[in-house]
Records
---
Amino acid sequence: MELKRNQYLIDGIPVTKIVEKYGSPLYIYDSAKMVSQYKRMTKAFSNTKVRINYAAKALTNLNILKIFRQQGAGLDAVSIQEVRLGLKAGFDPQDIIYTPNCVSIEEICEVADMGVRINIDNISILEQFGHRYGSSIPVCIRINPHILAGGNQKISTGHIDSKFGISIYQTPLVKRVVETNNMRVEGLHMHTGSDILDVEVFLRGAEIILDTAKEFEELDYIDFGSGFKVAYKADDIETDIEALGQQLSKRFNDYCKEVGRELTLIFEPGKYLVSEAGFFVARTNVIKQTTSTVFAGLDTGMNHFIRPMFYDAYHDAVNISRPNGKTRIYTLVGYICETDTFGWNRKITEISEGDYIMFRNAGAYCFAMASNYNSRCRPAEVLVHEGRDHLIRKREEFDDLTRNIVEAEI
């Protein structure tokens, strides 16, 4: 994204032209930014044997999955539907790792029968899986390292009261289940949360999982999850991926020498790869001034862009119709029947009704968390790739809302 000749450009294409072509509201993605983030991460860990699995939950559009497959990434899936999307996008089953939570043994077995790698995060399922498959299908085990980390309580997943993973203090029980059922544990996994800034958090977690790994002699890989912080503001501090790569690679390589076998280091970033590559554009419906606030009411709401409301997330906003000129203070709100505020008291160049407002960092968990609340249709998605814009998901229409309704004779 660059501001040039009074226009915001994505790979040379004015954003205003894209939204005028495809309509508003609109999600726009920049493939070049996704690829550069992927390459930055692989370069940071180039001194060790590393595998990057894209976390599909961040943005599941098939075209996005294909971009990462073409770059050599694997896939992290958390539902059978994401597994099926990954297979449809061309991923080899063994390049997909399925990490569900609180799903049925039937769903897990259905995925296992597809040839996908299985990551188990509770004792009950581990026992049931072992009874069914024994040593015929290897498993990965998700541990809970009891580390409180993450930018918001809703995205902190490695603490003692988290529903995710098997407590490290239950390792003796895990071994007993594994040995009794003659299971093969091929990997260990942990994920402590999202928006983690401090490299020391990852290094502390590494010591815990590496210590636990000594209990399993047939490991092929150790999966450190993800959670890297990205920049939401111009002066934001982000996770120092280069420093982490240097320090963690050395520690991981030393561990491999210590145990006498070469393991693969795996990460599963989602937000890190796609957040900054995404933009969400909405049209200003109305300017409304109260006794204390000037509202800019947009043609969208929390049904399309819930992160500011759900996570108190900050998303930078700019008036792409008027990039320059004097600024005023606005509160950006949506058209939903409850308070859906995208940003309070934002300094933005003067907004008129009809102007387009663009939010940055809209690649991760924006369309993925969109809904039809208030019976509103979901927007289209557009991918800018190698200097061309491509429609990668059509805008929903009213018929899409009623497609699966069965009218009863009442």
---
Amino acid sequence: MLVGLVGKTNVGKTTFFSAATLVEAERGNRPFVTINPNEGVAYVRVKSVCTEFGVKCNPKYGWCNGINRFVPIKLLDVAGLVPEAHKGRGLGNKFLDDLRRANVSIVVVDASGSTDDEGNPVPPGSHDPIRDVDIVKEEFARWISSIIRRGYGKIRGKILSGSSVEEALSEALSGLEIRREDIAKVLIETGLKDKKFVNWSDDDLLTFSRELRRVSKPFVIAANKADVEGAEENIKRMREVLEEPVIPVSSEAELILRKAAKAGLIRYEPGDEDFEVVDESRLSPAQRKVLEMVREKVLKRYGGTGVQKALETAVFDVLGMKVVFPVENENKLSDKDGNVLPDAVLLERQATVLDLAEKIHSEIAKKALFGIDVRTGRRISLDTVLKHRDVIKIVASR
């Protein structure tokens, strides 16, 4: 599972990345601080099943606090973009080349409107953050259309040789990891299914590319700098205008809280609505002031910093992913070494028992006979679609 971070340069993408992963990455109030992509591990929460069964989790990856299980995902922070990047401006299409593997992207924007199109600082409220979202969408669409245009001869040749349009386009766009079924769906939705590819106009190609981006590479909007003056009104307007989920975010606040928790100064986990000071005497007056500012301006106003909510909205709400807990011993809920609920596996919405087996190991999938729903003790077939938070044992031949 790979979540991308994309957006105009100098809006806080790398701060979001550092806050979510605690990976130190270069940050600064200037354009193009990030050139090479940063990759790290973030986590999404799912209500743990351990208390339901009266056991204590022993996760191989991530952690469990007895209420929530934190499941790892990969997070990719790519270079920022400027308008007309598809023509080579700024760092050109580098951000898109790096982002092509992402299942979903979080578009980080400056909700306070304090950076212009080029990423330069301007007075808060003087720039429209909706324009930043539109820029990302348009650059992404024009990148897709440029790939199709460059491969025009091969696509046309395959169609003349008897391939369907979706098959030829799927091959041309294979590097973007776009599913053939998404291409077929978009051809129908745009009315281009029955129009010969050789007769497509430039407008047809761009219309197709815009819709294909929307369907195959969905976005969540992280309205960053939500605590800066003027941001709240912009966020309200963004929610009215944009079709994507818009999450108020303060990446800086999350980074402050995560670092304070790591230093043992406060008790705080990603997604918490508040924090608890461990020992007041260990805080300097400056640290106490900053933490109270975070509490008043961010946590009380928005119910959290928004970083965790943006990640979980992308994974669970937009992609519709689910978490399943596989076990080898259905009585002890453990693996062969006795680790209790060691794994929490992210699966697509329609994933089956066989898909789970494949995720665990290809050899297990080859030998899989059926599954056991641990809650009910019932045998379930390999083609059974699993539910979110299922606990499953895979039975395989020896």
---
Amino acid sequence: MRITGSYVTSTTLGEAVQAFVPHALPPRAPVLAATSYAALNHAAELALARLAGVSGLVPSVDWLLYSAVRKEALLTSQIEGTQATLTDLFDEEAGFVIANIDDVEEVTNYLRAFRLVQDNLRAADGLPISVRLLCEAHRLLLNGVRGSGKQPGELRSSQNWIGGTRPGNAAFVPPPAEKISALLADMERFIHATAAEDLPPLVKIALVHAQFETIHPFLDGNGRIGRLLIAALMEHWVLLPEPLMYLSGYLKQHQSEYYRRLSAIRTDGDWEGWLAFFLEGVAVAALEAERNIVAVASLIAADRRRLLAAEKGGLASYRLFELLPMMPRFSIEQVRQKLNTTFPTANAAVKVLENLGIVVEFTGQKKNRSFSYQPYIELLTR
């Protein structure tokens, strides 16, 4: 059996516990055999290539990104217990009053952290993937929400544990705080090594994600930052031209298996089992994203044809329709502002889409009415 780390005694809350310190990447003794991942890696790479190809068939990649990035933000937050829905997120962006604002704030914080990382990676003078960049993303992630008192933006200075009511009965105890900097430096070196053992990029991403989760360098938010790291590495190694895949959907659907596979690396040295799970997840998530793009593109094209064929359609209603994929919940006032027009013109544009059944009013009020591009939202939340 492969040994993937060592145990050291650490004391926290007055209890002595055995904390796990992972060996540096890549796995050794034995090294990973290419035969253990080659076929699955090839299938995952093909699925990503198909997804990239399909995205080029739609009129605007921006509205694909709008929904894909929000789905990833929502699903990665739901893995950690957030109860927000995609409709909640759209309502918050529309300025509507929502009940579970705290949960929605957690999701919007993830979006801010994601944008920070993406902007840095795309800017000539931006930070590369590094501990510093992850800390800056972590600061945004926990800003003003649950966990905001747990050292946002800072590596932990105390021992943490996962599962159990106290350190002594924990399911897993990550490395002591004093080991974190060196472990993360090793991980960073692995990411930026030119050869990196000639492993395929997706395999390296799987290894790095598992290593990050094992190090668990923050007091809170490790899961979300670890999954954000997957998206960042996809960008770093140019596996997708845009972040169109929401892997967290697969990880949420197979949440117990996700945790079990990560745990088996530490307990059984089973890197191969984790790689198989991860690579299959990428292939499934890419296929799901591809199907979703086709379905959404078909819906929008059909609705556009109906609008263009309508007798009472006009420039304002056409312009409003093109905004819907990135503004699926809205008020008349929002339409007025977006179209830079008068209230009666905005109202008439909405009325055209409402009469065609493209949008529906959902408050039942005579004044301050709000509308939803409901078939589109239902497709995204399937």
